[in-house]
Amino acid sequence: MREKGRKRVWLWVAAATAAVCGACFAACGEKGAGQSGSSVQAGQSDQAEEVYTVTFIADGVVVGTDTYTAEDAEITAPAVPEKKGYTGEWEAYSPDKSDITVHAVYTPLLYELTVGTRGDPGVAKGEGTYPCGGAVTVCAEPYAGYAFAGWYEGDIRRSTDVEYTFEMPPYATRYEARFVVREDMKPFSFTSHRYFCMITGVEDRTLTSVVIPDCVTSIGDGAFRHCSYLTNVRLPDGLTYIGTGAFLSCFIMTDIEIPESVTYIGDFAFQQCHGLTDIKIPKNVQYIGECAFTGCYGLTSAVIGSGVTGIGAGAFDLCEKLERVYYGGTAEEWAEVSIDPDYNDPLLAAEIYHYSETQPTGEGKYWHYGENGEPVAW
Hints:
Elements: H1 2-46, E1 52-58, E2 61-68, E3 86-90, E4 100-108, E5 110-117, E6 122-125, E7 128-131, E8 135-142, E9 146-153, E10 156-159, E11 163-167, E12 173-181, E13 188-193, E14 196-202, E15 209-211, E16 218-219, E17 232-234, E18 241-242, E19 255-257, E20 264-265, E21 278-281, E22 287-288, E23 301-304, E24 310-311, E25 324-327, H2 331-336, E26 338-339, H3 345-349, E27 351-355, E28 366-369, E29 375-377
Parallel strand pairs: 1-4, 5-12, 14-16, 15-17, 16-18, 17-19, 18-20, 20-22, 21-23, 22-24, 23-25, 24-26, 25-27, 27-28
Antiparallel strand pairs: 1-2, 3-4, 5-7, 6-8, 8-11, 9-10, 9-12, 13-14, 28-29
């Protein structure tokens, strides 16, 4: 019995020892396995591919990003944002194993600009095809008698500058130059062009004096006819033409000076201007029309420029007080002037004085200009 009991004790001890050793062996196996796994992972991390970033920017704003590696270089670009008036695309790029910034490139579209005027009081320039955002310059030029009022796009006034520069908008459009009648031309009716302006009438025929604006080049036929209250007129330098009956029946007009620029005085131009006492016809006038001064009862003297080559019938008819004619040329030149004898008796009967800057020593009647520009006989 004692032997049998001792045997059981030894069997129990052996089993316990085996269990402990088995546990230790298992623990050592797990530790070894863990160390071996860490070594493999570290090796794999050392061999991982580097990742690069591509950034897409349009007008300073980041639109999107993408990544690539040396092994997988495929890049997906976002859509280029739309920009009105332009077409857009990404600038060229290629993967180069670094981070990349890609910018949008916009190309302006072309749009049509038409330029015109309202009515026909001037000209406008600058029409054409322009890129969106490109500089455009338009120019306006009013005809004589008008002033520039502004550049309009539709009903919006864009500028009051005659020459106006702006950026072409992202659409086709029309710019219109508008003009208004100058303040000093409002009393008159007139026709004009770029270098020409003719007064054709006056709004108020009771006016007593008038200053013709400097833009006027012609006084049209009958423009001031029957302005019976008109006493004095100021004509501008640059005036070239005084039409038929321009001042006919301006009965009490006493003061008018014809500028040197005038080349033509039409028929009946000053007929029945009873108040005129003297008249000066400049040297650039070539012809004095028929009946131009008929019925100028108060006319006592006339200066006739050396450029006059013809005087029409009745030019000085009924000028019964005409005593002196101061001619701007010589006696020989006066003899060459073609004077229609019909109804020009007062002119033919008047004393003719010929111009001389210095006091002549020979015979004849001569004159020169006084200190105030008036004719003075030597």
